[in-house]
Specification:
190 residues, mainly alpha
Length: 190
C-alpha cells in the first residue's frame, strides 16, 4: 500500500509544529496539529514503514519528538492517550515518568500544591487548568486571545494584557480563571 500522502502530511505537520514551537506565543497552535499527527501515526500508518521507521521504538520516538514541541499541560488527557500508545508500542522509563506526571496532574484527588511541589513547578496555577473543560476550550481561547492581541506589542507588560484578555474569554465560556499574577502575588512579572 502507498502511504506517501500520509507521510508527506505528517512531515508537514511536524515542520509546522516546530515552527510554532520556535515562534514566541504560538505553541497553542500545535494542539490541532498534534491531534492530526497522532491520528496519522496511530491509525493510518503501519507498525513499520520502510524508509520512515523500522521498529516500534522508532515510531514511538517520533511521537515523543512531537511532544517535545508541545505544551502537554494544555491538553493533558490527549497527551496521556499519546503516551499510553507510546507505552504500548515501546515502553520506556522516561515515557512512564511523564505518563505518571500527567496522570497525577489530571487526578482531582491529588492536591494542586502537592503536584506542583512533587514536579518542581515553582509558580502556583489555578486548579481549573487541570479540568477537562479547560482542555476542551483552551485552543479556542488561545485563538481568540491571539486574534484580539494581534496588534499589541509583545514587550514588557504584555503578559498582563494577555492574562486580562484570556480571563475575559474564559469567563465568556463559563470558566473563572485566576492568572499567574493572581496566584503568585509576591512574584514580579513583566
Amino acid at each position: 500500500m502507498d502511504y506517501s500522502k500520509e507521510v508527506a502530511r505528517l512531515a508537514d505537520l511536524f515542520r509546522e509544529m516546530v515552527a510554532n514551537y520556535n515562534s514566541a506565543g504560538d505553541l497553542w497552535k500545535n494542539i490541532p496539529l498534534a491531534a492530526e499527527a497522532f491520528d496519522i501515526m496511530k491509525n493510518r500508518l503501519p507498525e513499520v514503514l520502510e524508509g520512515e521507521y523500522s521498529t516500534s521504538a522508532e515510531r514511538a520516538s517520533l511521537l515523543e519528538n512531537m511532544l517535545e514541541v508541545y505544551n502537554e499541560l494544555d491538553t493533558p488527557r490527549f497527551c496521556i492517550g499519546v503516551r499510553e500508545f507510546i507505552h504500548s508500542i515501546a515502553p520506556s522509563d522516561a515515557n512512564s515518568a511523564e505518563l505518571k506526571r500527567l496522570s497525577e496532574y489530571v487526578n482531582p484527588d491529588i492536591d494542586t500544591e502537592v503536584w506542583r511541589k512533587t514536579y518542581g513547578r515553582l509558580l502556583r496555577f489555578d486548579p481549573v487548568e487541570r479540568s477537562p473543560r479547560w482542555e476542551e476550550v483552551i485552543y479556542e481561547v488561545e485563538k481568540e486571545c491571539a486574534r484580539r492581541l494581534c496588534s499589541t506589542p509583545r514587550g514588557m507588560g504584555f503578559c498582563f494584557e494577555y492574562w486580562s484578555v484570556k480571563c475575559e474569554v474564559l469567563a465568556r465560556m463559563g470558566i473563572e480563571w485566576r492568572s499567574p499574577r493572581a496566584m503568585n502575588p509576591r512574584v514580579m512579572f513583566d
